[in-house]
Amino acid sequence: MLIDSPLPQLDRLFDYALPKDVGEVGPGMRVKAPLRTAGRVIDGYIVELDVEPDATRTLSEIESVVSTVEVMPERLYRLARKAADRAAGSASDILRLAIPKRQVRVEKSWQEPEPCAPPSSDAVDRARAVTAAYDGLDAVLSGSGRAAVEAIPVLQDDLPGWALLLASAAALQLAEGRSSVLVVPDYRDQELLLSALATLVGEDAVVRHDARQTNPDRYRAFLRTLGGAPCVVVGNRSAVYSPVQAGLVAIWDDGDPLLAEPLAPYVHARDAALVRQEEEGSALLIVGHTRSTDAERLVQHGWLQDVTAVRRVIPQVRLSTPQELEQTGQRVPSSAFATARAAAAEGPVLVQVARPGFAPTLVCATCRAPARCAHCGGPLGARRRGAVPVCGWCGRSANSWRCGNCSSDQVRLASSGTERTADELGRAFPGVRVIVSDGSHPVQHVDARPALVVATRGAEPLASGGYRAVILLDGARMLQAPELRIAESCLRWWANAASLAAPGAPIHLVGVDGPVARALATWSPAAYARSELEARLPLRMPPTTRVAQLEGLPASVRTALDALAQIGIAGEAVLGPLPVGDDGRVRALVRFAYAAGQSVASTLRAAVIADAAQSRRPRGRPRVSLSVHLDILEPEI
To answer: How far apart are alpha carbons 421 and 416 in whole angstroms?
Structure first.
């Protein structure tokens, strides 16, 4: 039996006896059982049934069978166990993401649906036409292969090419009687993928999996995936653990940070999919307009096949350098402005900006020092022209603000968000409607009428017929973020926006030059990912090596580092530990080769269990357990 507990020392199988009157019982069922400490009764799952060979051994009996539904099939347990072991975590933490809470009414009224009708011959032909546009993709799908696919940046029937690709691959699997798991970062992508699937397969064949569902709806969808009837599961990062017997697992835009699980053991959806493919032998597709460095590393090692279009489509990207902006002093160069004016007369024009709001940041009008909140030190911003500055951290209004550097009481706008950009463009384009799309004003679709659509990265609506022009602003500001993967992320944001353009429509990248700008202009994402890997290799930064983050009290972190030293992970492989927070915690980073992953993970897991099992802590000091996070995206010290 596997106990459902967050305590790492309980992450193992326990033996229990079955009482004679227990009734129907089998592997995968939920049960309640007594825990020997404190007389508690806890939840758990039956993993396997066997006969105890030692008649003298006394076993505690399970308390009750909660449900006779086998919610944890053997394949789901194996996946959770392997994914947890790779991340030095607990299997129960992953199963908590995969198995929703029981809904008694739903379970009692549930009836296994009739198998859905396979896709029509016309739908199969259309799906084959989509996959045939990619060199070698059909062989990957039919031979349970693994591939990194560069999606064609086109719109077809007002649907993005990547969504049609994933839907077509799933339709072909469904036609062969196999299920598919399609994982996307957020609800926008999910809605687009569901629309693409609606053109190829029946509604009864699609199973949604996302956080917006009510608990009964999510449990109902989960029960559907437990049955033997093939289906297509579409959802966010935790959908990768769907218990269907999958013939295909596909991930869209694996570089999106939303696919990184924020809960322990922090397994990225891409890594879970890799473990699942190796365990189940399904086909695996990692699809994107750009290539993450993680996927490119796998391509370089031959683990993923590189799949591109038979006939590549290269968007018409035009570059304007920072020097051009400095010479004119304008945010939008004259060439991009002229393009937007001409295109806005014919249809919608997309303008991508870095941030939402009116003016996300303010500076002193006299000395240009950042305007800070007098209460908490947070950055001040403006919600509209002439408005009282408001702190972005605590939300307080700065009615009598004065600069701490020169005592001036005047501020000026330092950046333009969606609303300020919309205000400026609205005056420059009289008579043209302006649409804002960001986190506070989400817009899914716009029609083909003339419009200026101002959107933050990732919030760009789909335009009917595609955008007649795309203007990418604030690129230089985006690249200034102090993140290891910021250039990689910028290329992904810009490429995803460029893919929304109509065929042949101009795309202006404003104020950016260098390798990342050239990669967008030449549409060579794989080559750029290779160059990024080459640059990170001497620095031993991810993903060229695996990186683990250890955090806890100094003694706990030191004990874990000493244990790693026993297996040869020491010296320059360790960065830190350094203080973090104000409760005495420290943090250290450990870099290690992929070949050492199993030994490092097991060593760190043992250290976490030993630390958690300690019953004594220094008097007056709060309990701070050792935490371990493997494969962190952004190393911090």
So the answer is: 6
